[in-house]
Amino acid sequence: MKSGRKLEIYILVVAAFASLIAVYYSHIGVINKWILGIVAMFFFGIVIQQLGSFSGGYGLYMAGGKRGIRSIDRIAKKGGGFWDNMALFGLVLGFGLFSYFFVKDRKKLFVFGMVSLVLIVFFVLPYLSYGMQFLNLPQISAEASSASAASATHGVDLLSYLTYIVTFITGFSGFTFLLIWYNAGLILSATYAVIISALHGHAQVAPLANQIPGVAPVIPGIDIPLIAGIVSLAILLAIHEFSHGVLARKAKVKIKTLGVLLFGVIPIGAFVEPDEKEVLKLGKMPQTKIFAAGIASNFIAMLVFFAIMIPFIIFVLPGLYHTGVFVESTITGYPANGILSSGMQIIDWNGYKIENLSSFSVAAAGDKPGSLVDVVTNTGTYKFTAISSNESPGRGLIGIEVYQKNTPINNGVYTRFMLFLYSVIALSFMLNFLVAVVNLLPIPGFDGWRIYKTNLKHDRVIKALVAILLIGLLLNALPWLPILAG
Q1: Residues with Cβ < 8 Å from 241, sequence gap 6 or more?
Q2: How many beta carbons lie within 10 A of that of residue 67, not counting itself?
Q3: Would 284 be classed as within a structural domain?
Q4: DSSP code of residue 149
Q5: Which SS3 state, helix, strand or coil, does residue 209 take?
């Protein structure tokens, strides 16, 4: 590439980042930010792709080459059995008891993977809310910020037990399928209510607009922090594709090229391009290990960032900002409705000091129908008699939704840097998990699709799974319609 072209590309990259920053700090709403951000990245992507003669189109382009292949070769030779074990560990997390057919000759690893699956579900996933707090999405933001208090406000219901059972049997692939279709069922019910109201001459879109969309784009600078988002995405994509490359080389498959897939200047994928003809000549198990490597590496990266995040939360964050739990809204028909109001800070709950969502969850978990609930807020003390609900008849509820707000102690360089570091850690923890479970799905082009295609004999079964999944995903997108229309 000519030096003049390089300079032009560098200038365009700077301009593209500047446009994202301008959109991020504008006050035009997230939907408008998405539109402007996508248009800007589409424009810059096309120009950069043309100037650099990169492969791609429609704002997408692949920047890469052969640099890094030797490093992958060296690691593949020195890794011993770690990489094979990592891929098999990912299969156990991904497919639960069904993964026994993949690892039946590695019983100790299978048991370790199943125990890890249970521990992750009970002790790791509740902390996803710490990463979700960095999402800036309509409807999702408030729900995400109160995610770790969900058990306190809604109780452990039939869905929770069903989720545990399905995840144990089918791993996170079944876990993701179940949640997609559970949310799709709620959206179908809300859509039915909208249709009925329209037939009676007073159309109301509120039932649908109040539902939580199950699908949404995640774009740095638009709905997640710009720099922290790009760093987190770059980390997880590099880990994912690098692992594919290492397993491919261990199987003696030639790697043609590697690099990153960009939309404008946003990394949306990385790629390691093995010789597909050589991959298809391998047996089912070596192929499956190659396809599962990226998923497995993202699961492990999630656990690594989780291990970093917990001491960060305990020892570092308390010195960076003040944390409080506030009332988001109250629910009609429950005791707190009309008494507590949005914005009130919850200071004490039945004698428990409330410092964050986790302490609120613990405090409210013991409430039973008919029990007295003493709530101390910044405006006074209130007493309620908890009642049950159809969703969780064994739990006592007063009918509030809460969120956590963090206020920095100061705006110094140290505070800003540590909060940035925390955002990278929390986002990496969350995004590695999301990328891993989404890649387990049998969507054409995803790792899960290739695992299913390699190991299932009947194409009709795969096509049926894909159809069920795509219908569920389309239903999960319906709540965006009222927002876009508004």
Answers
A1: 258, 270, 271, 272, 294
A2: 10
A3: yes
A4: G
A5: helix
Mean pLDDT of the chain: 87
In degrees, to the nearest 5, what angle opens at C-alpha 440 toward C-alphas 276 and 106? 85
Report the DSSP pairing between strands 321-330 and 400-408. antiparallel
> CA 292 to CA 240: how far, in whole Å?
10
Q: Give the closest residue to 113 by CA, choosing from 76, 167, 159, 161.
A: 167
Pairing relation of β-strands 321-330 and 345-349? antiparallel
Do 82 and 42 fall within a single domain?
Answer: no
pLDDT of residue 28: 79
End-to-end CA distance of the chain: 46
Which CATH number characterizes residue 335's domain? Answer: 2.30.42.10
Burial 245-255 (b: 16+ CB within 10 A, else e): bbbbbbbebeb
Residues 30 and 101 both lie in one domain = no
Neighbour tally for 235: CB within 10 Å: 18
Edge-to-edge strand ranges of the sheet holding 60-65:
55-57, 60-65, 255-263, 266-274
Q: Do 116 and 29 share a structural domain?
A: no
Q: Is residue 142 part of a domain?
A: no
Q: Which two tokens stand for residue 135?
A: 């999402």
pLDDT value for 154: 42
Render 61-124 in DSSP notation, one character per residue: EEEEESTTHHHHHHHHHH-TTHHHHHHHHHHHHHHGGGGHHHHTT-HHHHHHHHHHHHHIIIII
The separation between CA 450 and the C-alpha centre of its own chain, rounded to angstroms, equals 22
pLDDT of res. 403: 81
Q: How far is CA 418 from the centre of its chain?
A: 22
Q: Tokens 């209510």, residue? A: 193
**What's the half-sphere exposure (Cβ side, CA atoms, 13 Å) at 224?**
26
Distance CA 272, CA 260 (A): 9
Domain range for 446: 69-131+171-315+424-485
Q: Are residues 372 and 450 in the same domain?
A: no
3-state DSSP helix/strand/coil percent for the chain, to nearest 5?
Answer: 60, 15, 25
Write down the H helix ranges in 316-458: 357-364, 413-439, 447-455
Report the pLDDT value the prediction gives residue 147, as an integer from 0 to 100. 40
Q: What are the φ/ψ torsions at residue 480 (nearest 5 degrees)?
A: -70, -20
Q: Could you count the other beta carbons within 10 Å of the beta carbon of residue 165?
A: 13
Cα–Cα distance, 221 to 227 (Å, whole number):
8
Residue 344 half-sphere exposure, CB side, CA atoms within 13 Å?
23
Domain count, the chain: 3
Which residues of the chain fall below pLDDT 70? Answer: 1-4, 137-157, 203, 205-207, 209-210, 390-393, 483-486
Helices then strands (H, E): number in the chain? 19, 10
